Amino acid sequence: MQEQKGFSGFINTKVMPPIMKFVNTKGVRALQDGMVYTLPFIIIGSVFLILSNIPIPSVAAALTASGWSAFFSQAYNVTFNILSIWAVVGMAFVYVQNEGYEGLPAGLTALATFFLIQTLSIANPVKTAMGSGVTNAAGKVVMTGKAVTANIDKLPKALQGVMTAPVTGVLNITWLGGQGMIGAIVVGLVVGWAYSAMMKAGWKITLPEQVPASVAKQFTAMIPAGVIITVAMFIYAGFSYLHTDLLQLLYQVLELPLQGLSDSLGGALVIAFAVPFFWFFGIHGGLIVGAVAGAFLIPNTAANATLYHAGKLSLANGAHIVTNEFYNNFINLTGSGITIGLVIFTLFAAKSTQFKTLGKIELVPAIFNINEPFLFGIPIVMNPMLAVPFFLVPVVVALSTYFVIRVGIVPPLNGVAAPWTTPAIISGFLIGGWKMAIWQTCTLVISTLIYWPFAKSYDNMLYKKEQAKLAEDEAADKTAADAQ
Questions:
Q1: HSE of 300 in the Cβ direction (CA atoms, 13 Å)?
Q2: In a designed cystine with 278, which of 151, 196, 204, 285 is the match (CB 3.0 to 4.6 A)?
């Protein structure tokens, strides 16, 4: 017991302080709270993603024929599919707001900067279409894409330009979704920091008191916004000479490696272990891990959603295994530590009054993936007797879920973002169909099997203490009665 106390002391005095210092930095707080602004659009967009991809052929065909599938796709495209816009505005807004200044002008400045650093063009759709070749009325390829490309130069130069020049003056929606997320994070945080620094330094236009406050605020933001946008313009110009832009560079250098790391088995196991690790010491592991990991997992979700929307969801086409829904609906299923197995034990096998009472209290919250009554009531926090299953269950579930998706037993998660309070099995169906719902049921069984022996041992200890206390109280009552 003394050794455990010493280990706990080491964690609390040596390990946790630097971690908490990092978590409480201005940037991480802005990242965590700013990403929250994407959630309504992710969830709303997920509804339209489901409606535009109903997994019932007859219904899907009817929706396509009626045109409603296109309407649902439009709603998906302007919510879920441009989540980087919501993120960049939200993070700059929160950063500056936390510094005590008006946040919205900073958020809009970040949005302008985000657009400015990317090339506002898309590939010519005619050229892209010709890449697959020319087909006849029957759909048969009569000239390969290679042959078409080789013969373009035989056309008049004006026609060549029309067919090959990129379409300019448009927003490339590719960079407004998951692929632009790291760029959005960088821009949001840097703009938030720079805007706040200039405000603190007094770089603002102060108008007389007679000017309406709504007008004065816009002039206050003018100098910081102007400086930031001017610098961004020079950055864009510099990258233009290299025939690229900063957003593409950030995607290649940062986002792709980080997505690969988060989507690996090792990444899944680290995340699965980290959540209960923080909780065991009384720190909200879900918030800490979710804030950091979400920045890399949400783009994975968005990428899968794009594949699902296009009807190409498979690992062969680049679908990710570990997404934000993998985190929410497996690693944190029924609450951090996947404590549903402990709930089941308390309801059907517990002998101690403490377990029975808390099991009844926790049942409904557990259905909606909330388990604070157990974490602090049993407690699980700082309880060595329940530490092993609390750490082990999420790791086993993460490992086994990764495996069943990797080998093709269940399909990759479809990118639908079920709210984290969605009950198990229902959430499994939404995020991956009936096979995923069945697998979620299996994870509930895994939780029960692992928690059961540890819960039984701890329950026996509690029951013996309760019986001893009851006997002690009865003896005291009898002594008091005899004295009378």
A1: 27
A2: 285
Highest mean pLDDT out of 149-158, 201-210, 269-278: 269-278
Q: Decide if 183 contacts 235 (C-beta within 8 A).
A: no
323 phi, psi to nearest 5 deg: -125, 180
Residues 179 and 236 in one domain: yes
What lies within 8 Å, CB to CB, of 477 at 6+ separation is: none
231, 319: one domain: no
Residue 266 burial (C-beta neighbours within 10 Å; 0-12, 13-18, 19+): exposed
Please tell me whether residues 246 and 392 are part of one structural domain. no
Note the pLDDT tens digit of each residue in 69-120: 999 999 999 998 898 999 999 999 999 999 999 999 999 999 999 999 998 8
If asked whether residues 198 and 228 sit together in one domain, one would say yes
Label residue 128 by pLDDT band (50, 70, 90): low
pLDDT in tens, 203-226: 877 777 766 777 777 778 889 999
Domain range holding 100?
Answer: 30-126+169-261
Q: Which of 173, 194, 13, 172 is nearest to 79 (CA)?
A: 173
